[in-house]
Amino acid sequence: MTTANVLRIGDAAVCLGIAAHVLRHWESVGLLAPPRSPSGHRVYDERTLDQARLIRTLQRTGLSLAQIRHLAIGTHDDRITLIANKRGEIRANIALLRATDRFLEHVLECRHRIVAECAECSKLVAGYEQGSVGESGPPGLLLRR
Ligand SMILES: [Zn+2]
Fold first, then answer.
1. What's the half-sphere exposure (Cβ side, CA atoms, 13 Å) at 140?
2. Where are the domains of the chain?
3. Residue limits of the HTH merR-type domain (predicted)?
4. Which of 15, 16, 102, 121 sits most deeply, having the most CB atoms within 10 A of its CB?
């Protein structure tokens, strides 16, 4: 396998924007299996590069390598469960980030010295502490000015 469309590990790493040792690690945990040249060097063809891009993308969603491996080798039901759980985490994180953004937006305008003096701050903080951040607020920014 020495056609023009394959890369050695160093060039593949540059192409992917990651370190070569990361590619070797993904291989060691069974996520990548780059073919070997007749002389025994790893060669990264388009299929292997696409697999590496998929791993990187899935990592960016917060999946661990173990979870990514589970997606690759698990049963259909396992995959459905893992994806549903991850989507639940993502939705919770989105709700937290939105609540945090609303809180920070309010803090820009708030003229109260402490949270307890401001009904809006109190409401946002109380909502956060009760775990209902979806429509409430983030943790306490307790003192200002
Ligand atoms: Zn306030």
1. 11
2. 9-63, 95-135
3. 6-74
4. 121
Q: At what angle do helices 119-129 and 76-109 cross, to 10 degrees?
A: 160
CA of 94 to the centre of ligand 1 (A): 22
Taking only the tens of pLDDT, the chain with its 145 residues reads: 444 589 999 999 999 999 999 999 999 999 999 999 999 999 999 999 999 999 999 999 889 999 999 998 989 999 999 999 999 999 999 999 998 899 899 999 999 988 889 998 988 888 777 766 544 444 444 444 4
CATH number of 9-63: 1.10.1660.10
127, 135 Cβ separation under 8 angstroms:
yes
The rounded Å distance from CA 107 to ligand 1 centre is 6
Distance 93 CA to ligand 1 centre (A): 23
C-alpha 133 to ligand 1 mean position (Å): 16
